[in-house]
Design goal:
heterodimer; A: 450 residues; alpha+beta; OB fold (Dihydrolipoamide Acetyltransferase, E2P); Chloramphenicol Acetyltransferase; seven-stranded mixed beta sheet; four-stranded antiparallel beta sheet; B: 220 residues; BirA Bifunctional Protein, domain 2; four-stranded mixed beta sheet; 29% helix; 26% strand; globular
């Protein structure tokens, strides 16, 4: 028997909707015969048969969503002996979806999880991804141990086996030592000279204890990993945004007029309103093309620097659930107004808890803006595995000596570029920030480069 | 067993959108990429491969007005085409049957560059595959992949009848983030909104000289 898993159809595509089968159970197929039609977000694909044989099982129906990596067709290719089954099972164990690779766990009862796979409907798997839950860690209450949406809602991590360090719900620290270790350890800090983890002394007064949970736990893991693994360097500067702010405010007034004039059916009151962040993001996306070291990642396994040729800019958003970093994909290819819309839209989704995983992933550079709250320069921690982050402070009016040696009141934006010193040097950071400064202080420079 | 473009969900008189049949046959026969550029000749609603017609199309109005309904090879939601639309299709050999997003993006880039060379600047990609100017969709596209073959088709709205579009199409069941709930009229614009002098035939001529299919010959 050959268990055909939905193959990787393209970067970022995790699932497809089954539109139509071209075969039925019992049909004989040759290699490359069309098996079915799948549809991703915009593309339709005819999936060919990888083997010749007889269709033994079809594990999905038209309209179902099928995850990449899940078995959706079984073909009897004549190798249906016990040895072949064992081999197939081994192949499956070594080739499961990424989220299943990172966790090694005690074997579940065989009647609940046959062949090591989690039983769950495609819609439930998608729901799990959207909720940020590793479905392999959830005990199923449905028939045969099938995981149901109710199981996901009830899941709080307590029934999980040992997890990777990034499991947001893992609070069973006292139990961890007795359980098997995770296969893919993301971080190994033991053996670092002078590194000492001290216990907390008995408090001198009343305290309240709160376990690291959910997003707080994720942030803690990510920030600790990044600050330990990456040698951070900060380069600071001040940018005179007086002119670009005047341009922005004038633009927003015009947009407000349009809105008042009855621009129709928009979700927001002022759909065209731009923030300074949109200007900075466009300038960053343009600047990164000249400074690829700040749009890169370090591949530790191969000791290579990976320079990315796409420009997905994340921005840190303070939400009721905690820090999130929505990502504006292909910020370099969108108009200024387009970037402005995306920032507002994504920030709204994040605040309302409606943002999806794809909208939070795939970033290549991050901007964090504390200006709305206050403060001057901020020293942000790089959002691993990116190689740099730009921190924005509060725009303030300051007395500045201008070209004719006169003191003028100007609007100043404090910025800090934190970067990974393994992939870039201070001179490059200074030059990159200088270019950003040029773009944001000179409208013509800005317009010519974005 | 190879099937057509029909879906089991169809319960409405619907035809296969096979205007690019010769293009695809030629590419399969020669193994070389090829392009087809043509103004659409009639009013029609074209559904995606997996579209639920009743969710996306006001079938009563379509039937009452005798508007043809097609189903295309590629995915996506239903669109309305009329003689104000210019169709640009490319088919090319491509190894395997994966790499969808990469190939899709390359096709979009190729068309954006062609439009820019033809004088239609300011076009960028947003959503999954929309071509956009100033946050208004000016072209939609779809993509089909089979083993060894990729096919991309875009409908450029040059002088579209947006009133009819709004009349025949429902608000789509899924939409790109940048649409933000906007109606068809507020979301879509013809290229001539930005370039008033442009007509379908002019753009067809300009693009015909500038879209070279050869760049996809070696697509993997």
């Amino acid at each position: 028997m050959f268990e055909f898993k939905l193959p990787d159809l393209g970067e970022g595509i995790h699932e497809g909707e089954l539109l139509q089968w071209h075969v039925a159970v019992g049909d004989t197929v040759k290699e490359d015969d069309p098996l079915c039609e799948m549809e991703t977000d915009k593309a339709a694909v005819t999936i060919p048969s990888p083997r010749a044989g007889v269709i033994s099982a079809l594990n999905a129906s038209p309209g179902d969503t099928v995850d990449v990596g899940s078995v959706f067709v079984v073909i009897d290719d004549g190798s249906g002996d016990a040895a072949a089954k064992e081999k197939a099972a081994q192949e499956e164990a070594s080739d499961t979806a990424p989220q299943e690779k990172n966790a090694s766990r005690p074997d579940p009862p065989s009647e609940q999880r046959p062949k090591g796979r989690v039983l769950a409907a495609p819609a439930t798997r998608r729901l799990a991804r959207e909720m940020g839950i590793d479905i392999t860690q959830v005990s199923g209450s449905g028939p045969g141990g099938r995981v149901t949406p109710e199981d996901l809602n009830a899941y709080d991590g307590a029934d999980a086996g040992p997890d990777t360090a990034e499991n947001p719900e893992d609070t069973a620290a006292e139990d961890r030592a007795s359980e098997p270790k995770a296969v893919a350890e993301p971080l190994e800090v033991s053996g670092i000279p002078f590194l000492e983890v001290q216990g907390l002394a008995t408090p001198d007064g009343p305290v309240e204890r709160e376990p690291f949970r959910s997003l707080r736990n994720k942030v803690a893991v990510k920030m600790t990993s990044s600050s330990i693994l990456m040698p951070h360097v900060a380069h600071m500067d001040d940018i005179d945004v007086t002119d670009i702010e005047a341009q922005r405010l004038a633009y927003n007034l015009r947009q407000a007029d349009k809105s008042d004039a009855g621009r129709e059916e928009t979700a927001e009151k002022n759909p065209g309103k731009l923030t300074l962040l949109a200007f900075v993001m466009k300038a960053v996306a343009a600047g990164l093309k000249d400074y690829p070291m700040f749009n890169a990642s370090v591949d530790l396994s191969s000791r290579e620097i990976v320079y990315k040729k796409y420009y997905n800019i994340g921005f840190a958003a303070d939400t009721p659930r905690g820090l999130m970093v929505p990502v504006v994909h292909d910020a370099d290819r969108q108009s200024l107004a387009g970037v402005g819309y995306r920032i507002r839209h994504l920030a709204g989704l994040a605040r309302n808890g409606e943002i999806s995983v794809p909208e939070l992933t795939g970033g290549t550079f991050t901007i964090t803006n504390v200006g709305a709250i206050g403060g001057t320069h901020v020293f942000p921690i790089i959002n691993a595995p990116e190689s740099a982050i730009l921190g924005l402070g509060r725009v303030e009016k300051r007395p500045v000596v201008v070209g004719d040696d006169k003191i003028r009141v100007r609007k100043i934006l404090p910025v800090t570029l934190c970067f990974d010193h393994r992939v870039a040097d201070g001179a490059q950071a200074a030059a990159f920030v200088r270019d950003l400064k040029d773009m944001l202080e000179n409208r013509l420079e800005f317009m010519s480069r974005i | 067993m190879t099937g057509g473009i029909q879906s089991k969900r169809d319960d409405f008189g619907i035809r296969s959108f096979d205007y690019d049949r010769q293009l695809l046959a030629g590419v399969k026969a020669t193994g070389a990429a090829d392009v087809s550029i043509y103004p659409f000749h009639r009013e029609a609603v074209v559904a995606g491969r997996g579209s639920r017609l009743d969710r996306e199309i006001r079938l009563d109005r379509v039937q009452a007005d005798g508007v043809a309904v097609y189903r295309r090879m590629g995915g996506g939601c239903s669109v309305f085409l009329d003689p104000g639309n210019l169709i640009v299709s490319i088919a090319f050999p491509a190894e395997g049957f994966g790499g969808i997003q990469t190939l899709f993006d390359r096709c979009s880039d190729w068309l954006i560059r062609g439009l820019s060379d033809a004088g239609v600047s300011g076009v960028y990609q947003d959503g999954i595959s929309d071509l956009v100017i100033a946050d208004r969709k000016i072209a939609g596209s779809c993509f089909y992949r089979a083993k060894g073959l990729a096919y991309y088709s875009a409908a450029i709205l040059v002088t579209p009848d947006l009133a009819k579009m709004a009349s025949y199409l429902r608000h789509p069941p899924r939409e790109p983030a940048y649409r933000q709930g906007r109606s068809h009229a507020a979301f879509v614009a013809g290229v001539n909104f930005f370039y008033p002098e442009l007509t379908v035939s002019t753009l067809a001529r300009l693009l015909g000289n500038r879209l070279d299919p050869a760049f996809m010959d070696a697509a993997a």
